[in-house]
UniProtKB/TrEMBL annotation:
Gene3D superfamilies for this protein: NAD(P)-binding Rossmann-like Domain
InterPro entries reported for this sequence: NAD(P)-bd_dom_sf, SDR_DHRS6-like, SDR_fam
Signal peptide interval: none
Annotated protein name in UniProt: Short-chain dehydrogenase
UniProt record similarity statement: Belongs to the short-chain dehydrogenases/reductases (SDR) family.
């Protein structure tokens, strides 16, 4: 399968989870893949395993993006996938009444600043060829409010809107650079492990977590990666500024829908 042949792709936060899945499938589709992450050990091991290049990139740092622009001034695809929920370092409050400003800013530094810097790098790196595809991994949390994760939800909503701004800007500039957002929900990745617990209760916990999902299961990284292949490929050449949900039907209805 060569749907991404002759295309160079940069993927952020690609050492594990959804980013890893995208990197693996992009390689299978013939792309030249640059795996980037702050986790150098996992990222370098993955790159070696799949025949990609690893570059350490902290998406929060302008200097890291500048260094990438020097080493890789021309690319065809960027997936802004790196993201944090805010719960990585503990359960601390993230509701709009009790969240600290420091915690709010820490989430936005990765999700919002990282996506802004990534899009800016990509537009510049795609300008010469005047074409390319930017895929921003948002979330269903960017489309609905999340009482217990205020910064995460606000940052993912910002990613959704910035994707549309980038799409319109590029079209206005006469560039064939497309930008779309992807909105997953409940995709089984290491991000969920702290919530799933040990094997005795794992199945029950997983079932409870997806009880409101119409398809009654978690999604897989391969399912998200398949959508990203489509958006990155020339098959999607008329799709820009779009938001793609991949959530087992979760956002097709609402808790208030009549039965
Ligand atoms: N898994 C889900 O159910 C789900 C649902 C909706 C949206 N998402 C989004 O998908 C993306 C990937 O999620 P995942 O479940 O694979 O998460 P994950 O935690 O398994 O992987 C995230 C990766 O990002 C990297 N990362 C963290 N901070 C970084 C930084 N500052 N710079 C560069 N890399 C950094 C981590 O090292 C890790 O490799 C995130 O943006 C997340 O918000 C996930």
């Amino acid at each position: 399968m060569d749907r991404l042949k002759h295309k160079r792709a940069v993927i952020t936060g690609a050492a594990r989870g959804i980013g890893e899945g995208i990197a693996r499938v992009f390689i299978d589709e013939g792309a030249d893949v640059i795996v980037t992450d702050v986790d150098t050990q996992l990222g370098a091991a993955l790159a070696k395993d799949i025949g990609a290049t690893f570059v350490k990139l902290d998406v929060r740092l302008e200097s890291d993006w500048d260094a990438l622009a020097m080493s890789h001034p021309q690319i065809d695809i960027l997936v802004n996938n790196a993201g944090v929920t805010g719960f990585e370092d503990g359960p601390g409050p993230h509701d709009p009444e009790h969240a600290s400003l420091a915690d709010w800013r820490a989430v936005h530094a990765v999700n919002t600043d990282g996506t802004f810097l990534g899009c800016r790098y990509a537009i510049r790196a795609m300008r010469k060829a005047a074409s390319g595809a930017i895929i921003n991994i948002s979330s269903r949390s960017g489309l609905v409010g999340i009482p217990g994760a205020a910064a995460y939800a606000a940052s993912k909503a910002a990613i959704r809107n910035h994707s549309k701004t980038v799409a319109l800007y590029c079209a206005q500039q006469g560039l064939d650079i497309r930008c779309n957002s992807v909105h997953p929900a409940a995709i089984l990745t290491p991000m969920w492990e702290p919530m799933l617990g040990d094997s005795a209760t794992r199945d029950a916990t997983m079932a409870a977590l997806v009880k409101d999902t119409p398809m009654q299961r978690f999604g897989t990284v391969d399912e998200v990666a398949a959508l990203c292949v489509l958006l990155a490929s020339d098959e999607a050449r008329y799709i820009t500024g779009a938001e793609m949900t991949i959530d087992g039907g979760l956002l097709a209805g609402s808790a208030a829908s009549p039965g």
